[in-house]
Amino acid sequence: MVVFFLVLLQLQLLGASTSGSFSVLPAEVRLHGNHDRAQIVVSQLTADGTLDSRSQDLTNKAVYGSSDSHVFIVDPSGKILATANGHATLSVIYDGIGQSIPVSVTGIGTEPVDFLKDIRPIFGKSGCASAACHAAQHGKGGFKLSVFGFDPSGDYDAITRASRGRRLDFARPEASLLLSKPSMLISHGGGKRIDHESVEYQIFRDWIAAGSPRPKTEDIRLSRLDVFPQIRVANEGMVQQLRTVACYEDGDQRDVSALALYDVIDTGVLSVNSTGLVEAIGKGQTAVMVRYDGQAAVSTFVIPYAASSQLAGWKNNNFIDSLAAAKLHDLGLEPSPVCDDATFVRRAFLDAIGTLPSPETVRSFIDSNESDKRIRLVDRVLGLTGDPAMDIYIDQYASYWTLKWSDLIRNSSKTVGEQGMWSMHNWIKESFRVNRPFDQFAYELITAKGSIYSNGPANFFRVNADPMALTESTSQLFLGLRLECAKCHHHPFEKYSQADYYSMAAFFSRVGTKNSADFGPFGNETDVMVRSAGDVSHPRTGKRMEPTPLGGVVVDDPLDRRIPLAQWLTSHDNEFFAKSVVNRYVGYLLGAGLVDPVDDLRSTNPPSNIPLLDKLAQDFIDHHFDLKHLIQTIMKSRLYQLSSLPTPENASDRRFFSHFAVKRLAAEPLLDAIDHATGVQTKFSNLPLGMRAIDLPDAEYPHYFLTTFAKPRRASVCECERSPDANLSQALHTINGDTVASKILDKNGRISKLMAAGLPHDEIVTELYFASLCRQPSPEELEDSRELLKESPDSLECYQDLLWALINSKHFLFVR
Amino acid sequence: MFNIDLMSNPTCQGISRRHLLQVGSLSGLGLSLPMLLKSQQLAGSEGKPRRDVNCILIWTQGGTSHHDTFDPKPEAPVSIRGEFNVINTPTAGVKFTEAVPRMAREQKRFALLRGWNPENGSHGTADQYVMSGRKFNQAVPYPCYGSVVSYYKGFQTAMPPFVQLGSSIDKRYGGGSPGILGLQHAAFEMLADPNAEKFSVRDITPPTGITMERVERRRAILARIDKLQQSIDLQPSAYGSLDEHYKTALNMITSPNTKKAFAMDEESSQLREAYGKNRFGQSCLLARRLIESGVRFVTVTDGGWDTHQNNFKTLKDSRLPPVDQALPQLLIDLEERGLLESTLVCWLTDFGRTPMVNSASGRDHWATAGFAIMAGAGIPGGQVLGATDNEGGSVVSDMYRSPDIATTVYQKLGIPSDLIVQSPDDRPIQLIEGRPIKEWM
């Protein structure tokens, strides 16, 4: 049975005050310093007096009062502003019932305005320190800030000193450009960012009036952001006020609801304003990303498509199905039925081995009466039957996944030379041929050394030639983290700082290469070696960085720093490693990752189904990082076998797999499929005939078809390099290009052979359907083809035109 | 995917326009016509006049010598001056070499920048830098002009917005490439020689043995087959863009307009001769036909300019004459057809060449001086801007860099200089970072 996803919140732990039918968060307000603010959130309690993810937000419906407006004032949306030191009481009235919340204010007049705590967040919040405005490469209008304020002392100088200090006027703070520009009292290219009656304006003014004191320390350390609510389930039209609390490493806490930045990940589902008021405008599930001072957190919202779904006829094949069904049920999504056999066999072959099944294979699969024939098919395609006579696709499997990982690892003769490229290729292919456990694969790659000609993985250190490139590639490949932002500034959507980045880079600081004219059997080899010294330093502070894994503690190794890194990376406790791999494979097979894009597992990009990602990752670890186990688990699930035909109700879903997401064939499998359909193999230059497009080891093949269909040049570790978007040149080339045309016309091709065999019309047409679409033509399609024959000048042209149309049809160009 | 910048800064300059464009590019086709009009209105409402200006870029790959063409130093010793004599132009005091006589005669038709500082002396990075205005950056592959035009303006007719004639571009560093804008904004490359007797264009002209009639028949069969593959329209997001491209592609193949654009034999033999009956000359003529048929940006490429040896013989006998004949002819032709005001014509190259002639009678790469030529679209003809020192070694007045040339091109084409695009990994990237050549605006 489906378990409903509910989060019960510990009211006490949250620090909420409850009475009657509603709770008030926080139960006590403490404000410190001029203009300190707090956000009150009022929630409806359930019948048994608890707060859950369906609890309605009453913040804008309750009525607020201040017992002493000298101490604090409160507005109708529950926002409190400190005005003087003292104690007072906030009254919250809803539905005739009142609650009293004590409010204390301290530090007014004594706590100075702080650059880091008070000024910098305003630059962030108002957008001044964004790349489009003053944090552009050369600033804007001569005023340059660091991106998201990662360089406080540089920003401080830019504000107070650059342009001969003309931005501040200590005698008349209001006349400072820092105030008059963003408030548009004088013209400002970026428009009005700060209202001259706002609290932000007053904070700026107070800071200038106090002589614009320097940042007290280099940086203040936040340990995390707490956002309330963490998850909310509601219907379209829902309104929810967020409350954001910054927790500092010294234990201090501060309500930063007014200062945090709020952004919706999927703007089709939610909208959010600058005060953190969220509204549900569509259906689905997404999160609000909340950022403040280098930390980021999310608040997740589930807006069901319908009140509930019946999941009629649903049967779980494995754990994927039970967890996916729970999510579908939560979202009120009715899944599409299971696809037919012909669709499944084509889908399974293309997804698992990038190759079309032979007409005989398709026929025997469709005709089989075995009840578990789909499971058997998956085992056969992946080579898991244990019977050498059945496991005949291991080569294709190895080629197809070697292609995928060669793209990601960026194997290319351009960077490592012909010999290096082949050596790397052979290692990757061998890994997939023997189904090497993925932790071993990663470990060998990251710790490789020796000759790049005889030790394949060593080329990784030629492809990525410096510690920075190695850090970025390793993080993105094996952790699904895009760390490159943190090279130059604090990561905008993550907690990672430049210090984190360069501490990772320190693991690679001692890898070097040495060239030798006479070393090795081939001569002129490059040797990857580990030196006994070498460090990286922080580009801003100049500090020498200790090797530290992300979110971990310093680990070093006197012989080779990469060893502790590889151990940490592949350890069972490293949640990112297994998750990033299983998420990639979910993306490859199901058309969208649980986290999407599949290689962007940042904390502010939450998975669409957390329990499913967790369980898949755990299962992957439990099965010793066995990729074939992972693939077969996904392919045997009911979820993978759903029809790609959406129902009207689930058509708008793209994240929860309620129907199979169709995907275009990539360049290489597409060319191979055209070869297969036409019966004419492409001959690649400098490679023997028989080598297929998915077998190509190198990125550098001057082949018009492959280039046009976006075979990656392997310049980037990003999955995005293989652009999934169709373009005009591709359409022109398949419709009208010589690649398809010459193969169809080929005298030794499929059509010529079928005609030479003297087969009757219906059989020829049936063969063409099996060879291209892997299915029987429908009676209508056969009938149509007979008409076509009548209309055509001759039968040869008829079959040529028919095959051309089949190859250009969507059932051919897509895995569906 | 989401756009962080957009959300944080709803009113920062350029954002609304960019948003509009992003929506447009989601269709995979760049802008649709209504959106294009809207963006033009938007741009217009910001006070900048908007004609739709197109561009023909002539790219001479390898690095055309500035000494031996438009910036001669007749007073310098022969080791610098080289083999060519100078000749006068209609503008007093402005002299070119005798190797470009027609350009000298028609000097009033174009503006010359002698103050270009290429800041680079390597091939590859030159193609990338000069044609994008952004220095090579491993992490951010910047798009070239034509791709930005395709991205920003989209289709005008059935013809692709960005076409490249010939393949003389060094692409090792992404020269002439769409970079972060994605393959859909790549140049439509036409490698066939328009001077050839049987000129036909890859993928646009049906393959050998396939008549236009048969293309039409196939189109009908495909429609029937797709229709019988029932219910495929139910995942419109996936299939939709493919449909659009197929429709456009088939339109392109079957449209008389397309056929007409490539029908070089429609031109009088007199005009064809005037452009020069050679590949470069006919490419310039084809470029004009393409602009007329709705292409927005045409790059005409020409190779063989890396004259380390036999600089003078190569230039005078083979490289310069076709350009010297065709470029002024193109300007005359555009003007006669009333197209010059709406067509920017540029001649750009890798960099300049060394002042000192080497022992092989060649000139090597030179990274601190060179020339650039622009015409049409309001560029003041006859103007000579900037100057180099006595040896043509470095710029001494009115120095402009490649980013400035880029900004000038973009402004002429009506592309906002604060354009920010989203990279595939979601970073906001500012494309343009120069100052326009104000004398030419």
Topology of this structure?
The complex is a heterodimer of chains A (816) and B (441).
Chain A: E1 8-9, H1 11-14, E2 17-19, E3 22-25, E4 29-32, E5 37-39, E6 41-44, E7 51-52, E8 63-66, E9 72-74, E10 79-82, E11 86-94, E12 97-106, H2 115-125, H3 152-160, H4 177-180, H5 199-209, E13 222-228, E14 231-233, E15 239-241, E16 243-248, E17 253-255, E18 261-264, E19 270-272, E20 277-280, E21 284-292, E22 295-303, H6 319-331, H7 341-353, H8 359-367, H9 373-382, H10 394-409, H11 413-433, H12 438-446, E23 450-451, H13 460-463, H14 467-478, H15 485-488, H16 498-505, E24 511-516, E25 525-530, H17 562-570, H18 575-590, H19 610-622, H20 627-636, E26 663-664, H21 667-678, H22 704-708, H23 728-736, H24 738-745, H25 750-756, H26 761-773, H27 779-791, H28 795-807, H29 810-813, E27 814-815
Parallel strand pairs in A: 4-12, 14-22
Antiparallel strand pairs in A: 1-7, 2-3, 3-6, 5-10, 8-11, 9-10, 11-12, 13-16, 15-20, 16-17, 18-21, 19-20, 21-22, 23-25, 24-25, 26-27
Chain B: H1 4-8, H2 15-26, H3 33-45, E1 54-60, H4 78-81, E2 86-88, E3 95-97, H5 101-105, E4 111-117, H6 125-130, H7 145-153, E5 162-165, E6 188-190, H8 212-228, H9 236-254, H10 256-262, H11 269-275, H12 279-293, E7 297-302, H13 311-336, E8 343-349, E9 352-353, E10 365-366, E11 370-375, E12 384-385, E13 387-388, E14 395-397, E15 400-401, H14 402-412, E16 420-422, E17 428-430
Parallel strand pairs in B: 1-7, 1-8, 4-12, 4-15, 5-6, 5-7
Antiparallel strand pairs in B: 2-3, 4-11, 8-11, 9-10, 13-14, 16-17
Helix pairs in contact in B: 2-3, 10-12, 12-13
